[in-house]
Write a sequence for this structure.
């Protein structure tokens, strides 16, 4: 188990280095002179050549790609995300503020999605093929086809514009989070319902189950001890994809509902061509994603005895 | 089941011939007739610049669906090539190819696409580049997995011993066994590409105005949501119908081709 963990950690380091390199290479090749962008952001139009040279030397632009990459990476490994090229402020505190808006919303949406999809899948699979089951499948199929930005706008139209019950923009109070959480939770619920449903159905078809029921083991005990763990394996496997889906939805939802979270932070930074901020968000998202996938991998291995110990 | 194929055919035909059915020029600005309600000369009304919404939706099919087709096909070609190289090229090639896909798999594709398209400057070319770069890994994984599983079958070994070149073996012996799975993966990626293109369009990093891509149209319609909600609702509905049709067709194909391992 420990050697597997070390192996996964090593792979995570390789992945993160690759992500950092890819991001830096992308920004390095971005159109326009990055030094000019920084100078204009700091000092306005008509910057002198001396200022440009100073900025180039400061950021290591003159000495080629690898020197500049190292000039960025070395402080980063000590936790220094650098300064915004637009207002010169440290990136990290702003990033923390943005996270404080994003993480609670993500967790609530995930919880909402689970709270809807698990009971729905359980009810649907009581009688496969019944109208209830078909209804759940149809709802889930339509649900995964709805883009988050459209659903968010429809909810604003209904609950904020027509009914006037809920605020649409901002993040001042808890009520501001209801519509964003509904938007994200709906998408999570739709895709999870499909996966949990097919997981349960597959587990139900396992040949060892009649051995328990015919021996007189209570149905509830069979469901808890044998069907649930079996159905959990495919669900845990796709949780990583689910998280990716959630992060993608967050970007859009934060933009629509004008929430100052990580998604808005990223989109605004791209529009302002504030590359230190872009790099910081991308790397942060990669770290989160790698860590969560690491956790999922470990859970998966402990759930399925066939893969534990094997380097998949 | 048959209705799914009818729906998908209608979508494909609309993407190809929709623009010919458009009653007006989708980009012709007509300020005196802005924000007209549906009916009369403008069947679905006009937008904030007086452009006919029906014509824009019909032309939008070519942008949204056509670009998604291009992007998913490029991903298919690149991904399959890399996957087959990994499966055939020995352990070193396999290791390099799979470690190269790791960082891409380690990141939410759409966010990566937003960053790439945004940093390179919003245009259709950067949109295609961004979605292709972030959209080939699943093909590569599937192609490699199946490629490795057939590499020891009798007919492949025999072909190798008979002196067939690796390229010939890839074309004549690997590809036929890959096709069912790749087709199913492709439908999934096509649906994702449509969502990706409209999302990027909506965020302002995709197809640029005045071109009538559905996501871009939604971005325009957003500020007039209170007065003319229909022009915001319709482009989104088009995306939902297209994605739903493709997803259902993918499910039907998976059952018909008995594909087990292409769920990722």
């Amino acid at each position: 188990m420990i050697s597997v963990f070390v192996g996964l950690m090593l792979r995570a380091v390789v992945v993160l280095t690759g992500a950092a390199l890819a991001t830096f290479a992308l920004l390095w090749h971005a159109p326009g002179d990055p030094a000019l962008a920084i100078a204009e952001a700091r000092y306005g139009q008509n910057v002198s050549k001396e200022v440009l040279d100073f900025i180039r030397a400061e950021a290591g632009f003159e000495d080629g790609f690898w020197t500049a990459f190292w000039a960025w990476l070395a402080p980063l490994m000590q936790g220094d995300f650098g300064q915004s090229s637009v207002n010169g402020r440290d990136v990290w505190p702003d990033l923390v503020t943005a996270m404080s808006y994003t993480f609670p919303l993500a967790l609530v949406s995930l919880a909402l999605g689970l709270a809807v999809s698990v009971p729905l899948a359980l009810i649907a699979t009581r009688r496969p093929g019944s109208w209830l089951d078909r209804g759940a499948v149809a709802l889930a199929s339509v649900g995964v086809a709805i883009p988050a930005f459209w659903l968010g706008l429809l909810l604003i139209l209904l609950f904020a514009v027509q009914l006037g019950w809920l605020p649409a923009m901002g993040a001042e109070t808890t009520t501001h989070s209801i519509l964003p959480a509904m938007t994200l939770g709906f998408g999570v619920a739709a895709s999870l319902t499909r996966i949990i449903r097919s997981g349960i159905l597959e587990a139900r078809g396992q040949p060892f189950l009649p051995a328990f029921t015919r021996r007189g083991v209570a149905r509830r005990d069979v469901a808890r001890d044998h069907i649930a763990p079996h159905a959990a394996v495919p669900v845990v496997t796709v949780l990583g994809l689910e998280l990716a889906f959630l992060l993608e939805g967050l970007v859009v939802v934060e933009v629509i509902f004008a929430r100052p979270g990580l998604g808005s932070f990223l989109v605004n930074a791209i529009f302002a061509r504030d590359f230190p901020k872009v790099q910081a968000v991308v790397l942060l998202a990669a770290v989160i994603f790698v860590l969560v996938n690491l956790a999922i991998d470990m859970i998966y291995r402990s759930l399925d005895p066939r893969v534990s110990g094997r380097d998949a | 089941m048959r209705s799914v194929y009818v729906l998908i055919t209608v979508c494909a035909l609309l993407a190809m011939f929709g623009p010919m059915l458009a009653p007006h020029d989708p980009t012709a600005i007509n300020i005196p007739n802005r924000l007209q309600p549906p009916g009369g000369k403008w069947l679905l009304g006009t937008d904030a610049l007086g452009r006919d919404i029906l014509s824009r939706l019909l032309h939008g099919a070519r942008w949204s669906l056509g670009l998604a087709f291009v992007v998913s096909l490029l991903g298919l070609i690149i991904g399959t090539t890399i996957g087959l190289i990994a499966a055939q090229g020995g352990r070193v090639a396999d290791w390099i190819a799979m470690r190269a896909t790791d960082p891409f798999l380690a990141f939410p594709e759409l966010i990566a696409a937003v960053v790439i398209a945004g940093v390179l400057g919003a245009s259709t070319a950067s949109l295609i580049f961004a979605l292709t770069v972030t959209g080939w890994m699943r093909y590569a994984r599937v192609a490699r997995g199946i490629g490795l599983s057939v590499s020891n079958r009798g007919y492949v070994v025999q072909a190798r011993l008979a002196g067939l070149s690796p390229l010939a073996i890839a074309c004549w012996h690997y590809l036929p066994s890959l096709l069912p799975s790749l087709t199913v993966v492709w439908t999934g990626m096509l649906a994702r590409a449509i969502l990706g293109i409209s999302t990027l369009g909506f965020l302002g990093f995709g197809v640029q105005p005045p071109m009538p891509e559905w996501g871009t149209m939604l971005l325009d319609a957003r500020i007039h949501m209170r007065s003319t909600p229909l022009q915001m609702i319709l482009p989104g509905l088009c995306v939902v119908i297209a994605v739903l049709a493709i997803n259902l067709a993918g499910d039907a194909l998976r059952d018909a081709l008995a594909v087990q391992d292409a769920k990722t």
